[in-house]
Specification:
Elements (H helix, E strand, L loop, with lengths): L1 E3 L11 H15 L6 H4 E5 L6 H8 L24 E4 L3 E7 L6 E7 L6 H10 L1 E2 L3
Parallel strand pairs: 2-5, 3-6
Antiparallel strand pairs: 1-2, 3-4, 4-5
Length: about 130
């Protein structure tokens, strides 16, 4: 996983479209104020081979389980715990907001081989399609 806890790290993203999307999100989140990790949170680009368990440990929040009742993706009563999930042409964007001040973690999940199949399936099922 590629952890981006500063906008200056965006150039590390190899996929140009995802790099531009992450840069846009940093700009939208910060507005005219300088980036502050404690206020704005950070971004993660999921990489092939990253397990959902490792992602959950990093985020500190369940991704394929419900936070309140521990149901898992694929079970009949499952309800995801993210704040927002949007589908883009080559990735999904999953957002978790952790406080009223807006501290968030955004995951960018590429639609490519090597990304966890259950994660991609859950994203495909629950994502809203990007609005132009």
């Amino acid at each position: 996983m590629l952890i981006l806890n500063d906008p200056s790290l965006v150039d590390r993203i190899p996929d140009l479209a995802i790099r531009e999307l992450v840069q846009q999100r940093f700009s939208e989140i910060c507005g005219v104020e300088p980036y502050d990790y404690d206020t704005h949170g950070y971004m993660i680009v999921v990489e092939p081979g990253d397990s959902v368990e490792v992602l959950e440990q990093e985020v500190g929040w369940p991704i394929l389980r419900n936070f309140f009742d521990d149901t898992r993706y694929g079970e009949p009563d499952f309800s995801p715990s993210f704040e927002a999930l949007e589908e883009h042409a080559n990735c999904y964007e999953m957002v978790f907001i952790f406080n009223d001040e807006g501290f968030c973690v955004a995951l960018f999940i590429p639609k490519q081989p090597g990304i966890d199949g259950d994660l991609l399936a859950m994203c495909a099922e629950y994502a809203a399609i990007e609005q132009p």
